[in-house]
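Q: Got a minute? One more chain.
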Amino acid sequence: MAQVPQTFFDALAVRTWCGLALRALGRAREEIDAINVYPVADGDTGTNLYLTLESAATAVEAVFAGYETGAGEPSPADAVRAMAHGALIGARGNSGTILAQLLRGMAQVLAEAADASRFDGSALRLALRRAADSARQAVAHPVEGTVLTVASAAADAAEEAEGDCGTVARAAYEGARAALAATPGQLAVLRRAGVVDAGGRGLVAVLGALVEAFTGEAAREAPLRAAALQEAPLRQAPQVAEAVSDGHARVEGDSETGLCAPDLCADAAGAGGPAFEVIYLLEADDAAVARLRTRLDALGDSLVVVGGDGLWNVHVHVDDAGAAVEAGVEAGRPYRIRITHFGLGDVHTGRERPPREPVQRAVVAVVPGEGLAGLYTEAGATTVLARPGEPPASGELVQAVRRAHAREVVLLPNDAELRHTAAAAAEQARTEGIRVALIPTRSAVQGIAALAVHESGRRFDEDVVQMTSAAGATRYAEVVVAEHQSWTTAGICQAGDVLGLIEGDVAVIGADVTATAQTVLDRMLQAGGELVTLVVGDEAPETAVAHLEARVRESYLAVDTVVYRGGRQGALLLIGVE
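A: Always. Here it is, folded:
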């Protein structure tokens, strides 16, 4: 379908740009991963950019969804702020973190523009300049020949252009494209590999989508290799997937043609370079973040700190991952912590490591809190953490399926709202040759029941049937606090009321957590049951848990109770009855 040009940069143009950029990165993801040799040859730049942009696009769609039931559409300022915030909380890797700051820089200018209904070419020029400058400031030690150089060239070219948004966007794209082609002459590691900078290549794809959003015309293809080596075969960087926290890393690719030369890898990262990539979101004030930058800069390299207004995304490569996290704790409240091992030195030294043989079967599950993540991990599952208000995107689920490194995967979304997201992830994984079965679990307690009967030794179909049956036989409920006044199936609730939801519908409205939870539990046990599972959130009163255990013990003699600590899971209490 032909793209309808957008003369001005309004909310619809933001939405269109996000969609086109996501598709462009999706098409180029594998190629960008393949040329990723700097700052670490870990082959994930394209994937990280895609996941970051997917989070931005999801945030923009959420803003538009809020206007579907009413009149009008979101303002451009709302749309660009959502885009920037989504990228910030979903940023992955060095490249994704820098992209998030580029989008934030643009959002700052556009949200401050005098005309709040739409932006013209002059506003876009200023936005691209702010984007490039703020991204460079976010990097502790900027290096030329990287995405920063490409962003600056785009801003320089845009400043020379006169005209509407389409004209400015095209000038920025052409400037970025020319700068990208020149990156091998600025970084020895790129020149020796015969490739352009991977992060810069991703930015060019994003700017190409901006041109298409304004003009309806697809931009020219960006180069992948150095101009002087266009006829030479493309040497790929090792494809290293995100490692789990126990230090095991998976290396994909052909040992003859898929791995870069030892001297190239050593150039890319420096022999004996940091072993871990640490990323986390951080709630902290500006002064604390300034101190954090100094401390992290002394601990490692590739330091990028982006964000503002109390919320930051921190990225650094270090040998002591614990020290990097502790520094964040001292600065404020770090969360969504991701620690990736670079493969026990393989990436930094270039020593080849034989690919790990895939396991036959694995379980991948979405869990709502750190406590349940630990429980599921102990049971052998690969987990994806879904924090309150931050559901995982399909790309994160696909990454988890890849990380499980199995021929067969059982996927447990554990949330009715994630059904379509999980289905999309399963379909993507199947195109990569992985056999995936999606069990439509609607609550983490159903996932616990499914995982309890999982047996990797039996046939895949039989295992899926048994897990599906166990999940389906588990009724579920949750106790939450209402955030605002609303109509429910149990009547009108006020902000602060305690709600008891059974199978997703509000069944009880109360003022006390313990009383409401008991009412919910009694209603569920009226239909029978043999086992009650209670998953307790951090904010649930301890007295409520003790009361419910006593209630079951005294009133339902044939029913057993098991209690798990869920951590920060959103709901005060999850209840399962089997």
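A: The radius of gyration is 25 Å.
Q: Perfect, thanks.
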